[in-house]
Design brief:
The complex is a heterodimer.
Chain A (H helix, E strand, L loop, with lengths): L13 H43 L7 H8 E6 L2 E8 L2 E12 L4 E8 L5 E9 L13 H5 L4 E2 L1 E2 L2 E2 L3 E3 L9 E3 L5 H22 L3
Chain B lengths: L2 H11 L10 H6 L4 H25 L8 H23 L1 H7 L10 H11 L4 H31 L1 E2 L2 E2 L9 H4 L1 H24 L1
Antiparallel strand pairs in B: 1-2
Helix pairs in contact in B: 1-7, 3-4, 3-6, 3-7, 4-5, 4-6, 6-7, 7-9
The chains are: A alpha+beta, B mainly alpha.
């Protein structure tokens, strides 16, 4: 008996064939779109990071790329990547990338130390996933400013940061915590203390 | 149904959030600020419109047994386009929305409209239905976000409205308040819709 010719859509392999073709088309479109936007995304990310490094080192950010190239050199010592800042032969300081675990995820930040590692020039949070409106307030200016220009070493010993409630007046290296976000504040303080110990051990300043 | 009826039906009468209780996880997650809700809403409108259109266009060729796989592939592609677009052109908002943009893929509204409407109707009507459902979703997000942002931060789209005297309600910023607000909204809408039916 002569078999009647089957339509393509009635054949067994049709679903597989359909899925493969569709996947190829859509992935192709996405690849093109990704390629078109990627340059922009990368430029923005690099730009944002350079701005943060400058801000942390208390350098002007009026012309980010130009200032970054003038003052900053990227260096590395036994696994520690850092950003070394110099203005006309005068050493401004060292900026380190640090990380610690927050309440919901990792917190990434930058800290800058002065020439002899005795003072913290600045502290900036780059990424965090804390609760919006509560823990996320650790990114507010007043909170981050609390670490600025603080003496962190006395007779070669590290002076650790500690927390006080938001209404108390902080002394020396005490940090006012964010009300309702004790865990997030503690995460930041712990991250700083731990990383400062590591950095000082590694670089052994006089 | 005329095009206008399709639109109003999916926007209001059969609103995805308050009528079908779909897509509420993202509705709860991003509504603590109006700006985030607006962008999220627009992202969903875009994804819904284009994926319903595409799925409807292919509806006679999609093998029935693998139709869900095909739908997910199409929806995911449009969501990735939204995500890439935000990363490239609105990086701050992309950062604020975080993983929620990617999670539009799992927003049940989109799959729901694709299955319930786009598989059976013409591309243009499906796109209209998608836009209606998307706007209905965005509308709910904005109402909830309006109250949460106002009470939680004292602001409207980031502008300070309530002065220093206002004690910010931290609860409004956190997830539980979204549940209260959504429940209140549903209660309100049900009453209005029921009343209209009686009249």
């Amino acid at each position: 008996m002569k078999q009647t010719k089957k339509y393509l859509s009635e054949r067994k392999f049709y679903p597989v064939f359909f899925m493969v073709i569709l996947t190829v088309i859509f992935v192709g479109v996405l690849a093109v779109f990704y390629h078109l936007t990627q340059a922009r995304v990368q430029t923005y990310k690099a730009h944002q990071f350079q701005k943060m490094v400058l801000l942390t080192l208390d350098l002007p950010v009026d012309q980010i790329e130009q200032n970054y190239n003038t003052y900053i050199t990227e260096e590395s010592q036994s696994g520690f990547d850092y950003y070394f800042a110099k203005r006309n032969d005068e050493i401004i300081g060292y900026c380190f990338k640090i990380e610690g675990s927050g309440l919901w995820g990792m917190i990434n930040a930058l800290i800058a130390l002065n020439q002899d590692f005795s003072e913290l020039i600045g502290f900036r949070i780059i990424d965090q996933n804390e609760t919006p409106g509560l823990g996320a307030r650790i990114t507010e200016e007043w909170f981050q400013k609390q670490f600025q220009d603080k003496k962190i070493r006395h007779d070669g010993e590290l002076i650790k940061f500690t927390m006080v409630p938001e209404d108390d007046i902080p002394e020396n290296n005490q940090v006012q915590q964010v009300t309702g976000a004790t865990s997030s504040t503690r995460a930041v303080v712990d991250m700083l203390n731990k990383n400062l110990v590591k950095i000082i051990q590694e670089f052994k300043p006089e | 149904m005329t095009k206008k009826q399709i639109f109003i039906n999916s926007l209001y009468h059969e609103n995805a959030v308050w009528r079908q209780i779909l897509g509420i996880c993202s509705a709860l997650a991003v509504t603590n600020q109006l700006m985030n809700s607006l962008v999220m809403g627009l992202g969903v409108v875009f994804t819904l419109a284009f994926s319903c259109f595409t799925i409807s266009l292919l509806r006679n060729y999609i093998p029935a047994r693998i139709r869900m796989m095909v739908q997910v592939l199409i929806i995911a592609s449009y969501v990735i386009i939204v995500d890439l677009f935000l990363k490239a052109f609105l990086p701050d908002i992309s950062k604020a929305l975080g993983p929620y943009v990617g999670l539009i893929i799992t927003n049940c509204i989109i799959m729901g409209r694709a299955e319930a409407f786009a598989m059976k109707n013409t591309p243009l009507n499906s796109a209209i239905d998608g836009i209606g459902a998307g706007l209905g979703y965005a509308f709910v997000l904005l109402i909830i976000a309006f109250f949460r942002e106002l009470f939680g931060f004292g602001t409207f789209f980031g502008f300070q409205i309530l002065g220093q005297w206002w004690t910010k309600w931290s609860i409004m910023v956190m997830a539980p308040s979204a549940f209260f607000m959504l429940a209140l909204l549903m209660w309100f809408v049900y009453n209005v819709q029921l009343k209209n039916k009686k009249d």
